Amino acid sequence: MRSQEQGKTAGPVGDINVVYQQTLKNPISCSGVSLHSGAKVSMTLRPAKVDEGIVFVRTGISGGGARIPATWDHVVDTTMCTKLGNKDGVTVGTVEHLMAAIAGCQIDNLIVEINGPEVPVMDGSAQPFVFLIECAGVVEQRKPRRVIRVLKEVSVRNKGRIATLFPGRGFSMGFEIEFDNNAVARQSLSLGLMNGAFKEELSRARTFGFLHEAEKLWALGLAKGASLENAVVLNGDKILNKDGLRYEDEFVRHKALDAFGDLYLAGAPLIGRFHGVCTGHSANNQLLRALFADKNAWTYDVLRVDEAEVSPHVLAGMVAGEPAAAATA
Ligand SMILES: [Zn+2]
């Protein structure tokens, strides 16, 4: 589908008014523990061809490698993390923070080789992956970037949890969370994510969890790699990490980071506004499924330079309040 649609939207090469696809300049590797299995894994990010998209390759499987395209229709599980799988049942889990970094660094085409079933958790945020991409360098490719423009409001609801995509200029996000906990409590955020704002505003926000829940997960053999090195851990209202938080509202920022990564599984950058109320990986994937189920709700487009350069503050200010009011009604 991708290559068929691509022909419709690609502008002439050399058009200075449109944004071009990007990939890495050089391959780069890292290793670390995986959050759930606790196993050590190695990962290499490699440059990829124009229109290839983001593709995971599980190395050492059936002699060669097993390919798993990083798209919404390859999501096979959203319990605790976003897990992708192919038709042969080969999976790769906890892709969301890496996907957020890839989206935030505006990488269109990339091969992610990995020698285990889970992306390393690193410090629990997307910052180490942003650093890796910056070290490798980014190059522009000879074809305009394809984006997915949201044309009408699409929403998924489950009890009080609501995820919505609205049409909009550039890409912006709103998020609200509410926990029965004084350290987290109620947090909300609204920001524009064009112009590389991801790195500054979201990339360093770490995953978080509660000690009593971690103890339950450990008993089930899950979250084996989780520690104060890769998560903000709360014991009741107390934050156990000795250096405290990286952002005052790190919790809601991490939820937005997760959604940003999950939404990049659209297969291209979305142009519109996302708003999440107490949602997680499952709702993010359901929302993409709802979007793509309605042919009138979206279209492929190229991104013009003037839209790509919209100030993040303008984007956030333009829409502040409106979706939040709708969501709490
Ligand atoms: Zn996360």
Short description:
With 329 residues, the protein is an alpha+beta fold.
Measured between the Cα atoms of the first and last residue, the distance is: 38 Å
Which whole number gives the mean pLDDT?
89
- The topology string of helices and strands comes to HEEEEEEEEHEHEEEEEEHEHEEHEHEHHH
CATH class division of the largest domain: Alpha Beta
Structural class of the helix and strand makeup? Answer: alpha+beta
**CATH fold label of the largest domain:** lpxc deacetylase, domain 1
Q: What would the principal axes of the Cα set say about the shape? A: globular
Radius of gyration: 19 Å
Q: Compute the number of structural domains.
A: 2
Structure description:
This protein is of the alpha+beta class and 329 residues long. It folds into 2 domains: 20-143, Ribosomal Protein S5, domain 2, CATH 3.30.230; 146-206 and 246-328, lpxc deacetylase, domain 2 (lpxc deacetylase, domain 1), CATH 3.30.1700.10. Helices cover 26% and strands 31% of the residues. The chain has 10 helices and 20 strands. Strands 11, 12, 13, 14, 15, 19 and 20 form a 7-stranded mixed β-sheet that branches. Strands 2-3-9-4-5 form a 5-stranded mixed β-sheet, covered by helices on one side. A 3-stranded antiparallel β-sheet has the order 6-7-8, with no helix packed on it. Strand 7 and strand 8 (91-92) form a beta hairpin. Helix 2 (96-104) packs across helix 3 (127-136). The structure holds zinc ion. Zinc ion binds next to helix 2 and helix 6.
